[in-house]
Model the fold of this input.
Amino acid sequence: MPSYQYSPVPFYWWTGEALTKKRLSWQLNLLSSKGIMNTIISYNHTAEGDTDRGDPQLFSPEWWELFRWVVAECKAQGMHIGFQDYTIVNRTLQSIAAEIPDMQGGSLVRIEKRLAGPNVVHMSPANNTTFLAAYAYQMAHNRIIPDSRLSQKPWNFSDAVSRSFALIYFCFHLINR
Done:
C-alpha cells in the first residue's frame, strides 16, 4: 500500500445529521479500513453564500469538544485531518465575530529560512503575531529531505558548513477589527 501521503483526500461534510462521537467513530473506521488516511472537514453553503453551520453549530463549545476528539481519534488511527474554510470566510465569520467577541480572525503565516554555513537564527514575529511552532529540516540539492526533521532542541547549525538546513516556523497573525 502506498504511503498515507498518496491516499485520497475526500471532503468530510459535517452537515446533515447531528454529529455524534459514535457516528464519527464509525465513519473514521470506515475511511481508514479503505486505506483513506487523509480527510478534510468541510461545510456546504446556500446559494446566498451562507454556511450551513451544522449540529452542533460550527465553532460552538460543543463543536470544539467534538473537533478535538476527532483530531485525537485520527491521530490514534494514523490518519490526518484538515479543515477547509472556503464556505465560512465571509458572512459567517463576521456573524461569529459579532456573537463571540473573544474569537478573532487571522491568518496562518509560514516563514522559511534557508541556512548554509554556521548560523544563528533569530525568530521575531511581527506585531499582532503569535509564534506557534518551528521545525528544522536537512536539505540536499535545494530541497527538504523527507523525514529529516531535527528533533534535538536547541538546534545546532554549527556543522552547516557541510550541510544545508531549512528552518520553517508558523505564526498566527491577528486581523485588527
